[in-house]
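Quick one - inputs below.
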Amino acid sequence: MALDADKKQSKPSDKTAATPLEPGLGKTAQPAPRAASGAPLWVLPAYLVGMVLVFLGQRVLSTFDTASMVATVVGALSALCATVVRFMPQYRVGGGRKEIERLLAVLSVTGLVALGLYAVTTDAGAEKIGLASLESDARERWLGVLTIAWIALCAVAIVPMLFAEAALLPMRRAAHPEYRRVRAAVVSGFSLVLAGVYGSLLVYSADGVDIKADYSYFKTSEPSESTKKIAAALTEPVTVIAFYPDVNEIRPEVERYLRGVASGAANLQVEVQDRLMIPKRARELRATQDGVVVLSRGGVTESLSIGMDERNARPKLKTLDRDFQEKLMKLVRSRRTTYLTAGHGELSDQSAGTASDKGLRVIRTLLQKQNYLVKDLGLAQGLGNDVPEDADVVMVLGPTEPFAPEELGALKRYADRGGKLLITVDPDSLREGADADPTAPTDTATPTDAKEAPEPAPRAELRPDAPAPLGPADGREGGPGRPLSRPPAGTQRTASAQWQRGDGRCRAGSAAAAVECSGELRATRRGGRPAVFPRSSGTRKAARAEALQRLGPSALGD
Amino acid sequence: MTQTLLIARRELFAYFRSPLGAVVIAGVLLIDGIYFYWKGLTEKLLSAQVLQEFFFGASGTTMIAAIVLSMRLLAEERQLGTITLLNTSPVRDGEIVMGKFVSAFGVVALMTGLTIYMPLLILVNGKVSGGHIAVGYLGLLLLGAASVAIGLFASALARSQVVALILGALIMAPMLLLWALARAVDPPFNGFLSALSLHHENFRPFMVGILELGAVAYYVLVTYFFLLAATKTLEARRWR
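Output:
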């Protein structure tokens, strides 16, 4: 009500301002002074339509060249003409009207400046002013700033202009329109626009900072330290591209994870792309659907499907780190073959019913995750003749039955020619009462004793989260690690396997590192017992003593 | 500040002197309860998923309740002619707007707080983290504040409560659907529109128990912007 009262009291009436006195007043009535007119009423619609046409031409009709060009040119000309017309009244009016028209003209020019800035952000405009020749990062930065600037200027021009026109409308024909009203309206519009622009930028910046705290019960996988170490140790550039549309609920989760992995990894480049925006590249990487993460190194690719919707992607997000690490390992390590001996009651011997042992399953899983192909090797697979040529490593895991002489000969020949052999034996697992052929241990089987271990040794422990070594070694991955020597007294009594090698080419750190140790590999378990025990009859203690005596001092290692 | 609190107290009592406040609160509790029963007891969901669904449903009722509660704030004054008293009293427009906002937000907060027994019921047979519940409720309060501010702005524009309700819904609906529009727009506008979405992008982190600075900043700024717009609308009597 107060608003209406205000209007009635202070708003100049069109009639009192512009209408001549009533005819009944006679000759003495003087005609009212003609109101100095401002810009025509059609200027504002022409200006707005021009801006909308430019938008339509550039954004909606961009696929139709002719229509886009016509709409853009017509729109720009319309806005330009409206601005020129807006300036004209300033030269024929004075007072408040002149101030009002000047204010509106300034706002019109601001809109044209916004159009100019927009033109700079187009391909042709960027090329003309040299933006196209800048580095990719610098160009993107400049284009981002210019885009924000033209949008902000557009809003700063149009919203206050609408407010000003709304304030001016009731007194358009008045002889003396009140400039203060129009200015108050412009200030209101201006402050609202600035609040909106600042607010938008603040939200955008807050999103960019990516500060968040996860209080959920089921948390999305975070990059583990081992994955980060693998990424940081990459020696060749690896590109990771997540194919997700710009608006997708899974995309931020995947992007957050990948950025976390890439932080501190100089050779890991992460991109999140809309597959439809880069169809050629998606084809090259064989990404035929969205919701896929593709890892590529040179011409080699590995893909990880996560999914697009929450229901499908949720379980995969939980195991994202594990799956991503597996794919990354496959990408950076060549495929290798590991043979696990079978037929002697080994832990890996499925016929012996011990293959379900949890520890062995962990070893198998670890090997497979690090791109090892795991195969069985027994008499049926030709161990009686020789170790297959494709064997990168042979593992003898806790046999309880004696090896045939031919098998031992094959393993010895394999070790002699530089093959990698890992032998672990637990005397506790020797089958009681079983006859054994007291086959002499080969050179590769050398017991180490805790009492004779003067030097400390780094341990290679079988841990699921153990990082894999990367870098060249033995002509493959794995750098020249620290030389392993004998472990100190008391440190060998551990459930984990330990490996030693005197030539300094082997390094500790993971199961993969362990199986890379070749030649004079010595594996001990549980107190430095002989790696390969000839099974002996009698008690365990007697068997150990007998074995050590038979092996003699030379077996204690170099 | 004193004037703000005076107006807030007067409006808060007004909600409970009329049936509006009680009816809205009862309606919201009824709908939330039915939705919680439907999701929690008739569907095979994990505890955390039930909690997410509860926050999803509660966000809808909170938005609607906020618009309904705020429709009367200024439109009723205009309808009854009492806005003249406000305009002529020694109170600034910003204080009027802030006082009315505080009162409506207080009712929304009370209404939201009364639903706490539902998440606590999940704890009887399920496992959810207290942090998840707290973050979800923070999201509901922020969404309620933003909705009240939008409704207050609509109420400042309208001359009757019904028009204010419709206007508020008309302002809120596009803001809710911005994420759908974002899918049809080219970059970089799609990201911009998606970030401005009132619910989809910004409320989801609260639903799943993630406290994001960006989402908090968004709701605070939306609230501020519409309160500023309501203040400017009141000030417009100087130039309209």
